[in-house]
Amino acid sequence: MRAVRREGMLMVLRPRVGLRSSPSTNNKWTTTWVNTYAAVTSTQQTWALEQQVSLAAVAAPTGNEGPRARAMQQGLQQAGARACHLDAVGNVCASFGEGKDAPLVCLAHLDTVYDAGPPQDGVVAVHRHATRLRAPGIGDNSRGLAAMLLLARVLGLPDVRTQLRRPVHLVATVSEEGEGNLRGARAWFDAAEQRGVVPYAAVAIDGPGDESIVHHAVGSHRLRVTVHGDGGHSWVHADAANPIHVLGEFIARVSRLGDARRRDAVVHITRMQGGESLTGIPQRAWVDVDLRGTSAARIDAVRRELMRLVQQLTPPTLRAEVTIHGDRPAGSLDDAHPLVDAARRATEAVGVTPRSASASTDANIPLSRGIPAIAIGAGGCGGGAHTSEEWYDDTTGARGLTRLLRLVLDLAVTA
Prior knowledge:
Structural class: alpha+beta
Number of helices: 11
Oligomer: single chain
Radius of gyration: 23 Å
Shape: elongated
Number of strands: 21
Number of domains: 2
CATH architecture of the largest domain: 3-Layer(aba) Sandwich
CATH topology of the largest domain: Aminopeptidase
């Protein structure tokens, strides 16, 4: 594996897709011990689903996660977590174990996307139909939070706590979604760095699923380009520079940047607005640009080209400004990395074929700083994420919970 560090970001060159098998490094005692405590019972599955419904019912829009954070804090405290508290940005932080080795960090984000806006009374209705639950955030990420609570209960068992070689930090993060820009994960790893703590690895628990292993972090750069002018009458001032015309040319040029097939850098115009009247030359117009990909170097190259285009296309009689709405670092782990291999073994142990995946999650932050990190689902299946029609089915929910427990216990008790 060949890696370079660029502007604080760790980028693995030419990441391979697909997870290779490699022999397990676990000894027989560890394997038996993990098998004992990772097997999720029907009672535990039912309990986790109840927690999931309860958490989904508490509205938690990005930037206003307080009520759900307090519910998580109470659940973690009841599981026996030590020093459970809310940090300066609102993350819920807890830990288990007294081991001296570098800590393992598990993250699950608190916030939910509400496409129709959060309910005014802060209570989200969760609808049941046969085996399906429907509510915004029921899967993303109430499922991840419920799995974290179950993980805390297992880590809090006396026979488990005494066997942990390394501390396990559980962090329910704020502002993972959209313009939240991974604010909670950034803050936690910033604080850890200031304390001189370098985690052994990080696992983000995000949404449903039991087969995907996200070890390619999709980075992104989101910005708004606004062009200002004097405006005027479309006939009387026909020779005046037009902000919308400038942005039209900008859009045409942007459409030729990036490569949607390679996915190393993909760029899209996602929103646009401008103009004050049908017969007037606009005084202001703007477009939003969403740039994302798996290569930090390509993202940076396209970002520089976007800035160059803004400067080149804006005439002296107009003024352009660029506002950054988000910047998420990219990174990757090779498929042969020990953390990826541990996740593969945990997936195969529950009878599922593992699948390599790319996504943007809380794992982007540690991965970009050279800390091994992946993201996995917490079992069951779902769809419609980020909409009011989001749904979740728990028929196979125990399988994903078992995978998570196997992975965390394996990482926490082995050298």
